[in-house]
User: Which sequence fits this backbone?
């Protein structure tokens, strides 16, 4: 048992029992290494099935030799071209704001992000049109690989907690945030196991 799982087991024996019998977590490699690219992907995926979002991003990549565009190149692309890729008007505004704020230094590089704590990054990146706290938390977990993030607004996290603890209803986000303080500094690992519990129940 790792130090992280031992800590989670100590503070939440119910979660610990699940960890003991669960399949080992398999975390895929990060699709993106830079926050800018991860945010472009986050905008594309909002309110769309993953396959549709991947197709839209694929059409965008075609304009730039198979790669996602850098901020200046994205800003230079006509709105009509973005519409032809499949982006809605709201998503075009969000994409352009991601690019503008990256060019302005609001969106840091991965190297610069390593010097900022989670809350600082959440504060900075939620300035972007269409980017809320949940989107930044996903970036923190899956792109920057931060260890202490519990996305309490996520349905799957709350559902996993509910199922493991035999609750009739999901805990409210504020309640789960308070409960989750005990999981620190390994809250991301707890979230991953809650997601696993919710997936197994489907």
Assistant:
């Amino acid at each position: 048992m790792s130090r992280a799982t031992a800590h989670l087991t100590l503070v939440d024996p119910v979660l610990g029992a699940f960890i003991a019998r669960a399949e080992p977590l398999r975390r895929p490699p990060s699709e993106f290494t830079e926050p800018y690219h991860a945010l472009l992907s986050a905008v594309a995926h909002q309110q769309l099935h993953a396959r549709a979002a991947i197709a839209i991003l694929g059409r965008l990549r075609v304009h730039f030799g198979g790669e996602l565009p850098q901020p200046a190149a994205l800003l230079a692309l006509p709105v009509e071209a973005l519409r032809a890729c499949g982006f809605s008007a709201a998503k075009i505004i969000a994409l352009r704001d991601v690019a503008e704020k990256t060019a302005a230094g609001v969106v840091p590089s991965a190297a610069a992000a390593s010097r900022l704590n989670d809350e600082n990054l959440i504060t900075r990146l939620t300035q972007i049109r269409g980017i809320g706290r949940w989107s930044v938390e996903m970036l923190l977990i899956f792109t920057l690989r931060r260890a202490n993030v519990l996305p309490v607004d996520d349905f799957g996290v709350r559902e996993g907690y509910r199922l493991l603890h035999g609750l009739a209803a999901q805990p409210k986000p504020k309640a789960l945030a308070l409960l989750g303080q005990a999981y620190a500094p390994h809250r991301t690992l707890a979230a991953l196991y809650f997601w696993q519990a919710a997936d197994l129940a489907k």
In short: The domain at 3-15+149-200 is CATH 1.10.1670.40 (Endonuclease Iii, domain 2).
